[in-house]
Specification:
alpha+beta; 2 domains; five-stranded mixed β-sheet; about 15% strand
């Protein structure tokens, strides 16, 4: 039987894996987040949190680099980046790895002419790492969800499709079939 400490350590190592693979933050920020999680979840290891975070992330970066050598070109993330650039060129703000309060604040402060905003949280990326589905939220400029059939929704989902990414609507979100393989 696995002890609670071993289970928590396993979950923290998985958190380090997801941080490395998501690639949403720089290495220092990832290390800080993992160390903070270690201090919070394994207080008995608080003095070693920085060392453990560095070690776990170093292993994950090495594994990621080795795996990335066999990835196709382009990856789904490369296609996403191209689609996001096209959306941004058409005044659709794309917010990567943000929490809803940050998305709300950013959209409210956006300049005149914004057509909409497409955003997703770090947890959405982690799901794409493990399950191949990126759940995104598409908002009108006023922060309300864009409905299926609205021009904004049709334009954004069409853009994703043109870049080879399958989409579907699920519970008010736009789910993109995407294996999250961000190159290191």
């Amino acid at each position: 039987m696995v002890s609670t400490v071993e289970q928590v350590e396993s979950e923290l190592r998985d958190f380090a894996r997801l941080q490395a693979r998501a690639g949403l933050a720089d290495a220092d920020s990832q290390r800080a987040e993992v160390a903070e999680a270690i201090r919070a979840e394994l207080p008995q290891q608080a003095a070693n949190a920085e060392i453990l975070a560095r070690a776990w992330l170093a292993k994950e970066y090495a594994d990621l680099a080795a795996e990335a050598a066999s990835w196709p070109s382009p990856t789904d993330v490369d296609r996403l980046d191209a689609a996001f650039a096209e959306c941004e060129a058409h005044q659709v703000l794309v917010l990567r790895g943000v929490a809803e309060p940050d998305a709300t604040t950013t959209v409210a402060a956006a300049p005149e002419g914004l057509r909409g905003a497409l955003w997703f949280a770090p947890t959405d990326v982690w799901r794409a790492v493990d399950q191949g589905i990126l759940a995104t939220t598409l908002w009108r400029p006023d922060g309300r969800p864009a409905a299926v059939g609205e021009h904004l929704h049709t334009a954004v989902t069409g853009c994703l499709g043109r870049h080879g990414l399958a989409v579907r609507d699920a519970d008010g979100r736009v789910e993109v079939a995407c294996r999250w393989q961000r190159r290191p």
